[in-house]
Amino acid sequence: MKKILVVASLLLVVSSALVFGQAQAETGKKSYVFAANCAWPPLEFVDENGDIVGFEIDLVNEIAKINNVDISIVNVAWEGIFAGLANGAYDAVASGVSVTEERKAIMDFSTPILVVTQAILAPVSNTSLSNTASLNNKTVGVQLGTTGHIFLDDFDKSRNDFSVNIKAYDEVGFAIEDMLNGNLDAVVTDSVIASDYVMTNENYASKLKITGSASDLGEPEPIAIAALKGNTEVMNLVNNGLKTMEENGTMDALKKKWGII
């Protein structure tokens, strides 16, 4: 079933690219396709009306406006998002992408748009999970393939005095639901995502809290928009938009709009 869903997603991306190729011919504007895994509020998510919204979505739309181009955004599962970029299914990924040395070997990154750390999210009744060491012998949820997942797994394998049962989910929201159902002790996720669930999500604000920081899972991570290595056209487009937004105050306004500190 998973393979069928992946194929369907790629077909959707290809068809979107064809539609926007025609739009380019009609409007005279150059067209691009950006991918996002829309399960990361407040960065990108699907709202109650079924619309794709969020901080990075607004950011991409502003980049398009500043550069007088068309940019379509497609919702792609995180598990295959970088494979789609490598295969040319879209031009860039704007989806809370952490800049890592491993990724820099195959991708180019824009000017960072945020800096995040790994946060420990737990039910309000839990007061003991304050740091990575406190996760010892606990069951911890992560989103599959994220830096939180990778770092926690590496930390677990590298230490003889630490053991954690990691459960990986397709979306961080599934991990949080499973934690509230009593199946996890905590969830490790990006600090900006954790803050959104605690401070602004009315379904979770009274049930969850950020109990600590998993600071030894790595240094603070810059978040940026990714493109294939050597794609200077897209990088120039993105960086020009980001620079303009920093200078004219739009970046600060969008952070305030989406509650990003």
UniProtKB/TrEMBL annotation:
SMART domains: PBPb. Its main location: other. One of its GO terms (cellular component) is cell envelope. Residues 1-25 form the signal peptide. The keyword Signal applies. Residues 31-261 form the Solute-binding protein family 3/N-terminal domain. The keyword Signal applies. Keywords: Signal. InterPro entries: SBP_3_CS, Solute-binding_3/MltF_N. It is found in: Cell envelope. Belongs to the bacterial solute-binding protein 3 family. PANTHER family: ARGININE-BINDING EXTRACELLULAR PROTEIN ARTP (PTHR35936:SF17), MEMBRANE-BOUND LYTIC MUREIN TRANSGLYCOSYLASE F (PTHR35936). This is Basic amino acid ABC transporter substrate-binding protein. It comes from Sphaerochaeta halotolerans.
